[in-house]
Amino acid sequence: MRRGRGTLRALALVLALLGAQTVAVAWPAYACGCGAMVPADQSRIGVNQETSAVRWDGHTEQIVMRLTVHGDAEEAAWIMPVPHRASVRLGESRLFDELAALTAPRPEERPYFWPRSGDWPFGDTDGAAAPPGAAAQGPGVDVVGRERLGPFDVARLAADDPDALRDWLRDNGFRLPPRVAGQLAPYVERNWEYVAVRLAPGKQQGSPDAANGGGAADGGDAAGNGGDGGAQNVRGRVLSGALQPLHLTFSSDRLVYPMRLSHAAREPQSLGLYILAPHRMETRDAIGGRTPEVTFADRLETADQPELVRELADGDVHLTALQQSFPEPEKITGDHVLRRAASDSPFHRTYDRDVLLRWGGVPAWTVTVGGALLLVLVVVVALLVRRGRRRNTPPRHPACPPCEA
Fold first, then answer.
1. Which uninterrupted H or E stretch holds 193?
2. 185-195 confidence digits (pLDDT tens)
3. How far is 36 from 263, CA to CA, in rounded Å?
4. How far apart are CA 295 and CA 172, in angstroms?
5. Helix-then-strand count for the chain, H and E
6. pLDDT tens-place string over residues 241-255
7. How many other C-beta atoms are found inside a 10 Å radius of the C-beta of residue 294?
8. First-to-final CA distance of the chain
9. Stated pTM of the model
10. Which residue intervals are annotated with compositional bias (Gly residues) in the record (predicted)?
């Protein structure tokens, strides 16, 4: 009996180990919203959120992308297909703080009459607070540029076929899953190029890997100067949290946001887009996700733009903010193509904010109560005055009969 139990326990242990190994093999890579995120062998990485600011003026497109990741990968490669040759530099996370503030819900006041806790005479505040609102070049791959930008080793590639790109990644220590490689074919057919970024938080400019990359480009040095000071959200040597943004610039006669590689994602995707363009913009279709939700749309005058938004916008623009979720990424059918909306009508999210009703800056309840008390006082005084007059008036006596002589 004991031998039978021991056999069962051993079998269970073997099955558990096999299951753990299966999970490790089945989770080799994830695709993020606009490019594949590929970790080194036997490590895992996933993308929690992808947020991008997109500037398009009709002929040039800029994408500032920030990815929030999780997993146990110390290194990863990220692939971004682009329609024309791209320049790459570091972005600044503060840009997204400015955009979030611009598009935050606005309070819509809902007045109340009687004072509440926090109002006079119970306190000093008015209303409720707002809510927390180079490795060797492989066959078929042309390395058109390579730079070291802070913690990023950036290679700009032109590939003749998906297999060549896969071989280049393999030679650099990364394995491109077949399901991701299959999604590259349409880009090859259209002669698109790629930006391949190696994320290695533990690597510094003096390392051998950095030596292959040459210097930094477009104002971002090896320490990340010109960006966020080279800040990279890592847990020890593990890629984790919000990564420092990358800023891509390329020619494009239409506003396109590459999404096809997300078809290979193994977990739900979340995409946030801030679009700066001459007009309010909308997606042509949902490309397999839920209908994009417009969270903000309005014209931004240059004078009203914060510093980093002003640098990106370079003039008056319309800002459109979109949120979209992809519960089943395997249903993604292509790239987002954005077009001018039917109108440039503004849209702002709002929330109710209770405020004490005031008349001329004075709480309405004090005016009403004070007026009522004054009226009562006037009535009481009038009654008292009338009563006092009655007391001071002598009584009237009947006429006496005439006296007889």
1. strand 193-199
2. 888 888 888 88
3. 10
4. 41
5. 8, 24
6. 888 899 999 999 999
7. 17
8. 151
9. 0.70
10. 212-230
